[in-house]
Amino acid sequence: MDIVRSVRAVTEASGTGMIDWQKTAESAKAATDPGDLQLTTEEQQGYAEDVRDAQTRLQEVAGLEFDVPATVEVQNRHHWIDANLRTFREVMGTVERQVQPEFSGVSRIANTGSMAFSLGFLARNVLGQYDPLLMADSPDEDHGLYFVHSNIKRTAAELDVPFERFRRWIAFHEVSHAAEFGAAPWLRGYLESRMDEGVAALSEGALDRESFQELNGAMTAVEGYAELLMDRAFDQEYADLRRKLDDRRGGGSPISKLVRRVLGLGVKQQQYEQGSSFFETVADRRGIKSAGTVWADPANLPTGDELDDPDTWIQRINP
């Protein structure tokens, strides 16, 4: 980790856009220890077995047919930065095309520094990731499944839980996301369109509340349903893992909490909690397969009011 090199990269930001992406990557990596990626043969096989078993169990429990991504990678933190740089660039490119302002060197340096800090912070904390490749050039591009090995090992040690069991539980969570997008081919386009509409409105000085509400509702469903599947399909004891991971999400130092709030991770925590509560209620009332009808059609997504009152969604979709 080289903070001086990280800062120097930011100050050297140039170009015509709002962010110098080459310097963003250079700065984020310089400020982030890549972590160890020396996997034993047993660990390599463990990741592969966890993904295969998660797919089988999820298909059995949820009744969903889906494929896991062709790209399944065990990464270090620098690999994760590279894998996500394109997504960040695509999203910000949409903003830039809509707004099309003139950027001074000072603002470009500030934007580059902010993005590098965000990527570095996330790279040090992300455990696993299902990547549906939102905003990709082609809707036919394959999705990806990533595991940040150093973060999983460190977090298992911090939580005082066996690495193999914790790794397997994280695999079940990420494969649950693959199940959602596999069961709902429309979901990727739905999320992209809400993002585009929201950004377009902002570029005109307006706020498209409906698009942002629909986006938040869809993401709450995505996170909550994955939490439900993660727990109910898991083939080992998980109560201690759930409790400790929930405490980790809400814990941390004051600085860490501030950073999470600035990066919007507080919203993500709310999505986990609200979505999980919603789907637990639906599954208890009608069964887990009925909860999966949320992915049959965009009209089946719960509204904001229904997320607070699952029984109204049940009466509308599964009376």
Q: Point out poorly predicted stretches.
A: 254-260
Outline the biggest β-sheet: 3 strands, mixed
Integer-rounded radius of gyration = 20 Å
Report the total helices: 15
Shape: globular
Overall number of domains: 1
Which percent bin holds the helix content?
Answer: 55-70%
Terminus-to-terminus distance: 57 Å
- Identify the quaternary structure here: single chain
Count of distinct strands = 3
Average pLDDT, all residues: 83
Strand order of the largest sheet: 1-3-2
Order of helix and strand elements from N to C terminus: HHHEHHEEHHHHHHHHHH
The assigned structural class equals mainly alpha
Fraction of residues in β-strands = under 5%
Name a few traits of the molecule.
single chain, 319 residues, mainly alpha, 68% helix, 4% strand, globular
